[in-house]
Amino acid sequence: MNGTLIVDKPAGITSHDVVAQVRRIIGERRVGHTGTLDPFATGVLVILVGKATRLLQFLSGAEKEYEAVIRFGYATDTGDATGQKMEVQPKSRSAQSLLEDEIEAALASLRGVINQVPPMYSAKKVAGQKLYELARRGEQIERQPVKVTITKFDAIEVNGQLIRMRDDSTAELDVRVACSAGTYVRTLAEDLGTELGVGAHLAALRRTRAGRFPIEDAITLERLAELREANEVDDVMISMDETVGHLPFVELNDHDVGRVLNGIKIEVDSDHENQVYMRLRNASGELIALGVYDSANRMVHPRVVLTH
């Protein structure tokens, strides 16, 4: 069983838990995922199965898209609703005082290429240690900001309203975010609060797209189990070729297929950017390898052979 499954991750479990459940349901040992989702988050989790696990490097940098709820009124130690409420800073304003125009201006200020400091409660490693392990011990260390790209950070109106007031004097804003890989949406929520002068945290998060894969393609773990019972998992399994469909391809004759399977470079009649990865397919359209294109010599050097 080789290919990709798009799973709609439920809240309350880790991405690793999803991998373990998929492994158990379909009976395949080689299962991995791209783009970790926090336990409280839901939505698109790209699951690679069998030989497709070797395609991880071609998917991990894909743009992600989310729908989120940002709650104004106080910050938490984790940046999301799972954390402990932090004391309101003396200079913080009330959530009720927020105006729609200034919210729009603050959203605009966080679009484009920005610097983002990774949160302490994250799996990012510093000096070999995961930040969340340090955070759980009560340790705070300096983190270097990382450049991320926010292509979309827009408010979503709900019932004609931009911001919703809550009984506990907090306010909520629904947003849509499209961003580069490695972006922390909860940090974006905190930064929005900073721009507005009010404590903020992420109340809910749902990934609606990962690269080329939208939430409409996702299935639940329960549905996957039903399909396995009916022996119909192949109906929702995305082929390895389609998984990396964003890469250019070349169709090989039988002679070149043999060369590629032995790791030997081949000449191709096509023009592409130098060092771009290309899909190498046989006459049946099956992906057999990925190779790097040498534009000076119009050759492709096999790098990842998938039929072994």
Folded structure, characterized:
With 308 residues, the chain is of the alpha+beta class. The protein is 20% helix and 32% strand. The strands form three sheets. Strands 1, 2, 3, 4, 5, 8, 9, 10, 11 and 12 form a ten-stranded mixed sheet that branches. Strands 13-15-16-17-14 form a five-stranded mixed sheet. α1 packs parallel to α5 (221-229). It is elongated. The protein starts with a strand and ends with a strand. The mean pLDDT is 91.
Describe how the helices and strands are arranged:
Blueprint lengths: L2 E7 L5 H12 L4 E4 L7 E8 L14 E9 L27 H10 L2 E5 L8 E2 L2 E2 H6 L9 E11 L6 E3 L5 E9 L5 H12 L3 E11 L2 E2 L6 H9 L10 H4 L5 E3 L2 H8 L4 E2 L9 E5 L5 E8 L4 E7 L3
Parallel strand pairs: 3-11, 13-15
Antiparallel strand pairs: 1-3, 2-3, 4-10, 4-11, 5-8, 6-7, 8-10, 9-10, 11-12, 14-17, 15-16, 16-17
Per CATH, the superfamily of the largest domain is Pseudouridine synthase
SSE ordering? EHEEEHEEEHEEEHEEHHEHEEEE
Helix content: 10-25%
Major β-sheet annotation: 10 strands, mixed
Shape: elongated
Extended strand count: 17
Q: How many separate structural domains?
A: 3
| Residue share in β-strands | 25-35%
CATH architecture descriptor name of the largest domain:
2-Layer Sandwich
Please, what is the oligomeric state?
Answer: single chain
Might you state the CATH topology name of the largest domain? Answer: Pseudouridine synthase
User: What is the CA-CA span between the terminal residues?
Assistant: 14 Å
- Specify the CATH class of the largest domain: Alpha Beta
| Continuous helix count | 7
Q: Mean of the pLDDT scores?
A: 91
